[in-house]
Design goal:
Elements (H helix, E strand, L loop, with lengths): L2 H29 L5 H9 L12 H11 L11 H12 L9 E5 L20 H4 L19 H5 L5 E4 L2 E4 L9 H5 L5 E5 L14 H7 L9 H5 L5 E4 L2 E4 L9 H5 L7
Antiparallel strand pairs: 1-4, 2-3, 5-6
Helix pairs in contact: 2-3, 2-4
């Protein structure tokens, strides 16, 4: 190839590059999406755990939702009130100041209280155990399987298995909801941090059946409901359930419970 051919080839490549650059520039201007600078500012205040506890796909999704008005400024469970206040300042509004919540495991069926139906040998994972015949060693089909799927899901070291039952550390829990989502038996719920009395059972069996399977289950006797002066506790299909909006933490229900399943 002579020098003229090389020059022509280089010129063609250069011209093509310039044309493509111009076209890309025009396209970027024509199709660009305007981003509210507040999205960036809000995102910078979020902790970056991307846990999904806020209900959105990561911190980027929450930041966009807050700016769009689809999420509360204090919706990040990890950041809590402190981060909520900073975001509120960016958005020019006041933080909601909602009640702090924590996860709670509705089971008291520890190894010494829950009866077993057979010895289980297999994968130590609640989600997998829940689909094997009879769903694990414990007789109660509502109780904690004790194999720690919730522990693995928690990014904050706030939940551990103690004597066969998952237990939440209130001080570490940020109410991200990952343990709630992973539990195959729906045993975990988010409750107010200030709640002092909670029902440590999830069984909807009738009293005699409960006692055959566990020494620490709600027997549906209704004595707790009769003690409450604030209409804060009722029976839901043989299981006592507390309305935390009405509960005053008086403790009368816990004192009267014969099975001692109310904290």
């Amino acid at each position: 190839m002579n020098i003229t051919g090389i020059i022509i080839a280089a010129a063609v490549v250069g011209v093509v590059g310039i044309v493509i650059g111009v076209l890309l520039g025009v396209a970027s201007e024509k199709f660009k999406v305007e981003v509210d600078e507040r999205v960036t500012l809000v995102r910078e205040e979020l902790p970056g755990n991307n846990c999904g506890g806020c209900g959105y796909p990561g911190c980027d999704g929450l930041a966009a939702a807050i700016v769009a008005g689809n999420a509360k400024v204090d919706q990040c469970p990890v950041g809590g009130a402190a981060v909520g206040a900073k975001i509120a300042a960016i958005m020019g509004v006041e933080a909601g100041g909602g009640t702090k919540k924590v996860a709670f495991v509705k089971c008291k069926g520890t190894c010494d209280k829950a009866n077993t139906q057979y010895n289980y040998y297999g994968i130590d994972d609640c989600v997998k155990i829940s689909v094997v015949p009879a769903a694990g060693a414990k007789s109660c089909s509502y109780g904690c399987l004790g194999s720690g799927s919730c522990v693995k899901a928690c990014q904050f070291d706030a939940i551990h298995i103690v004597d066969g039952v998952a237990v939440v550390d209130k001080e570490k829990c940020v109410a991200c909801g990952q343990c709630v989502a992973i539990c195959p038996r729906g045993l975990i719920e988010l409750v107010p941090y200030t709640a002092e009395h909670l029902v440590q059972c999830n069984s909807h069996d009738k009293g005699p059946d409960v006692k055959k399977k566990c020494d620490a289950g709600c027997i549906g006797c209704t004595l707790c409901t009769k003690q409450c002066e604030f209409d804060a506790i009722h029976m839901d299909n043989n299981l006592a359930k507390i309305d935390y909006e009405k509960c005053t933490n008086c403790g009368k229900c816990a004192a009267k419970c014969p099975a001692k399943v109310i904290l």
